[in-house]
Amino acid sequence: MADEAASTVITGRCYCGATKISATQVPQTIAYCHCTDCRRVTGAPVAAFAAFDETAVTFSPDEGRKVVANPGVMRTFCAICGSPLAGRYEYLPGQVYVAVGVLDQANELAPQLHAHDSQRLQWLHIDDDLERFPNTSRSRLTDAAASLGKRSRKASRNRA
Ligand SMILES: [Zn+2]
Ligand SMILES: [Zn+2]
What we know:
Blueprint: E1 10-13, E2 20-23, E3 29-33, H1 36-42, E4 47-53, E5 57-60, E6 65-70, E7 73-77, E8 84-89, E9 95-99, E10 113-115, E11 131-132, H2 138-159
Parallel strand pairs: 3-10, 10-11
Antiparallel strand pairs: 1-2, 2-5, 3-4, 4-9, 6-7, 7-8, 8-9
Bound molecules: zinc ion (2 copies).
C-alpha cells in the first residue's frame, strides 16, 4: 500500500487549524461561483471551489458541521471556527467541491470558469478571458470529471 503522506499533492486547513485537508490528486476543475448561496456560505463577494474526486480528499479529524439549507446540496464547515470547507451536490455525484481559499496551494489553483455569472455582484470586475456561464456550469463540471476518469483509466492501462 502506498504511503499516504507521500502521495498527498494538495493540503489545506481551516482558519483555526482544527480541520486539516489533504488530497492525493490535483483538482478535476476549478471554478468561481457567483451564486448568492456561495456568497453567503463564504462571506466573500465571490467563491471559488476546486472539484475533486471525493475518494481523493481526506478531512481530518472529519468534515465538521454539515448543513443542508437547500435539498440536494450539503455544505460543510469546521466545527470549531466555521470556515467553509466543502460542498457536495446530488447532481454532481462522486465529486466534492473544496473552497480554494482554505487550500495551501491556492496561488497555483487558478479558476478555469465562472459559474452563475448572472448573479455576479455588479461592482465586482474580474478581468479575464475565462468562459462565463450565466447559470450552472454543471455540464462542464461533469464533463471534466468524465474526461479525467478516462485519462486516468488510460494511464493505469499504460502502466499495466
Ligand atoms: Zn477551524
Ligand atoms: Zn454557487
